């Protein structure tokens, strides 16, 4: 029987030490500034952020760490521990590189230079333990960690929300995507052991203390790559906007939040795809509200049920799941002590989130590894996540 793979990642201090030591090795002295940006999960509210909807994300204890010092040269020397690669970046060199991590650093430099006129160069080392491209927001954490390092070094003062917006711009320009603000808000504005409830209609945020005893939040990294996610994400954004446009012409509404079920019944007649996407959106917004109530009550069964409903909706209406994660959710249903789970993030592979009784966690790990291995030859990682708060 394969051994269960329940990973608890080393404390952030260990990562900070590793990055600081590497900095010393690369440049022969200690960095002036070290920043840590966490990854995030989303308890509920998927694909709602760019549709004026509701979501409930929280930062987790996986990190990207950046160490930085000023340099006497007028370029930036950057070393990535994860890719064991260094690069020399001259200002305004975006798109010369094909590696996404270099594009991202380059985009940070160019945007901060053009918007805040920073002068001079820097020495940088970046490392992290967030699995890359798996729906845990590794690239957003990367951008935020590097941007905060720059802002501190060059004394650029930004409010947290300004930082979120500029980081979104940096990432979108570098990777050619137009995501919502879910990831940036979660990583920057999370508080320790609290879930956030974000209303993307007015960007208001409330916090919900986290107090579920006897169970754990587990992320399963299916390691299925998300090739489709970029093009499909852009399509989902367009499909939702098209639905709103049509409904606007029929009912004179302007906001996704004005849509109701009767309007959707009309849409279904001629526009099946926008209908399905918006039906998911309406349901998902309701599930965020229901989840808040059940979390406050500590009702694990109901929490699990809402997670499963969300998965079903992401699978059949929003169509962003994949067969391996559908299989994980399906076989988990008959496992005693599993309350519920669903695919998280952009979709098409990557990670799913599960609520599981603490005392069955080892057995669950064995069960998932064995069955997923047998059916798809996939060896998933199970990661127990904690909620340490946002960037530091
Ligand atoms: C990705 C995007 C987020 C959000 C989620 C889906 O993670 O970066 O902005 O849209 O997908 O909820």
Structure description:
The chain is α+β, with helices and mostly antiparallel strands. The protein has a domain at 7-209: Ribosomal Protein S5, domain 2 (2-Layer Sandwich). It is 45% helix and 21% strand. It is built from eleven helices and 13 strands. The chain has helices spanning 12-27, 100-116, 138-153, 160-175, 182-189, 229-251, 261-270, 272-297, 300-316, 323-332, 361-376, and strands at residues 6-7, 33-42, 54-55, 57-71, 76-80, 85-89, 121-128, 194-199, 204-209, 215-221, 338-343, 351-357, 381-384. The strands form three sheets. Strands 1-13-10-12-11 form a five-stranded mixed β-sheet. Strands 2-4-7-5-6 form a five-stranded mixed β-sheet, with helices on both faces. The protein has a three-stranded antiparallel β-sheet with strand order 3-8-9, with helices on both faces. A hairpin with a 7-residue loop joins strand 11 (338-343) and strand 12. Helix 2 crosses helix 4 and helix 8 (272-297) runs antiparallel to helix 9. The mean pLDDT is 93. The structure holds alpha-D-galactopyranose. The site of alpha-D-galactopyranose (GLA) has 11 residues, from helix 5. Residues 42, 46-47, 49-50, 179-180, 182-183, 345-346 line the site of alpha-D-galactopyranose.
| Helix percent band | 40-55%
CATH topology of the domain at 7-209: Ribosomal Protein S5, domain 2
At the first level of CATH, what is the class of the domain at 7-209? Alpha Beta
End-to-end Cα distance, whole Å, is 41 Å
Largest sheet: 5 strands, mixed
If classified by CATH, what would the architecture of the domain at 7-209 be? 2-Layer Sandwich
Global morphology:
globular
Number of strands: 13
Small-molecule binders here are: alpha-D-galactopyranose
Beta-strand residue fraction: 15-25%
Order of helices and strands: EHEEEEEHEHHHEEEHHHHHEEHE
């Amino acid at each position: 029987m394969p051994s269960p793979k329940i990973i608890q990642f080393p404390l952030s201090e260990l990562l900070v030490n590793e990055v600081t030591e590497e900095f010393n090795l690369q440049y022969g002295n200690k960095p002036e500034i070290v920043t840590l940006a966490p990854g995030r999960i989303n308890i509920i509210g998927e694909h709602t952020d760019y549709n004026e909807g509701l979501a409930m994300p929280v930062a987790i204890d996986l990190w990207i760490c950046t160490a930085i010092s000023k340099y006497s040269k007028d370029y930036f020397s950057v070393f990535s521990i994860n890719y064991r690669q260094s690069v020399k970046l001259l200002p305004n060199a975006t798109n010369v590189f094909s590696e996404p991590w270099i594009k991202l650093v380059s985009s940070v430099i160019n945007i901060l230079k053009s918007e805040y006129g920073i002068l001079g160069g820097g020495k940088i080392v970046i490392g992290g333990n967030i699995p890359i491209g798996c729906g845990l927001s590794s690239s957003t954490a990367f951008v935020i960690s590097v941007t905060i390092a720059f802002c501190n070094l060059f004394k650029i003062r930004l409010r947290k929300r300004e930082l979120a917006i500029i980081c979104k711009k940096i990432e979108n320009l570098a990777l050619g995507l137009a995501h919502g603000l879910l990831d940036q808000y979660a990583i920057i504005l999370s508080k320790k052991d609290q879930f956030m409830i974000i209303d993307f209609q007015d960007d208001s945020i409330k916090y919900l203390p986290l107090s579920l005893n006897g169970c754990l939040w587990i992320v399963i990294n299916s390691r299925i790559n998300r090739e489709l996610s970029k093009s499909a994400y852009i399509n989902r954004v367009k499909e939702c906007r098209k639905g709103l446009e049509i409904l606007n012409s029929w009912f004179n509404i302007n906001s996704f939040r004005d849509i109701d079920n009767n309007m959707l019944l009309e849409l279904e007649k001629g526009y099946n795809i926008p209908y399905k996407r918006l039906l998911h959106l309406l349901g998902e917004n309701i599930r965020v509200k229901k989840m808040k109530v059940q979390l406050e009550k500590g009702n694990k069964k109901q929490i699990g049920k809402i997670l499963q409903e969300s998965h079903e909706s992401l699978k059949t209406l929003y169509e962003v799941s994949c067969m391996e994660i559908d299989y994980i959710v399906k076989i988990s249903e008959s496992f005693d002590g599993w309350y519920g789970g669903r695919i998280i993030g952009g979709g098409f592979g990557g990670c799913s989130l599960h609520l599981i009784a603490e005392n069955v966690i080892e057995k669950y790990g064995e069960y998932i590894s064995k069955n997923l291995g047998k059916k798809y030859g996939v060896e998933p990682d199970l990661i127990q996540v904690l909620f340490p708060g946002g960037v530091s």
